[in-house]
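Protocol step 4 of 6: structure prediction from sequence.
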Amino acid sequence: MRIVVAPLHEVEAAIRRWRPSHLVSLGSPGAEAFPAPSGVSRLALTFHDIVEPREGLQAVTPGQVADLLDFAAAWPGQAPLLIHCWAGVSRSPAAAYAVGCAVEGPPAASVLAARLRAAAPFATPNARLVALADDRLGGGGALTRAIGDIGRGAETATGATFVLELSANRR
């Protein structure tokens, strides 16, 4: 199973190359949505890339994380799942990590965090999204700790497309 993560400006190329069956678009409220390609199942979620609620901004909610994990549960895994956000640094790596932990189970959190860091040295997964996924998956803090252990990614203005490989077996 393969999750492809891309910044918005690389999504079209990622779709051509990887031919995903499922697409998750993570955007800021009011931002123009990426058009869904024909034949691709899509989930679009809108929230700002913040880790705690702030007046005038919308943080990711438990319901949105539940929607993400439910959408991913319906992904059969034969073709890749593509997840994108604006820069491909925080929201989409966090979502890919959460989906990976849902597929492989919270006990694999550290291994998946290490795979994420190896694939994307620039990734700094959104801590709020990870914490909400940790709660939803019953990880007992394992997801949050594992992301904390890999630390902040390398400074960058925008990420690059990367692949997070998962085991072929769902939990």
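Step 5 (inspection) to follow. The first strand starts at residue 2 and ends at 7.
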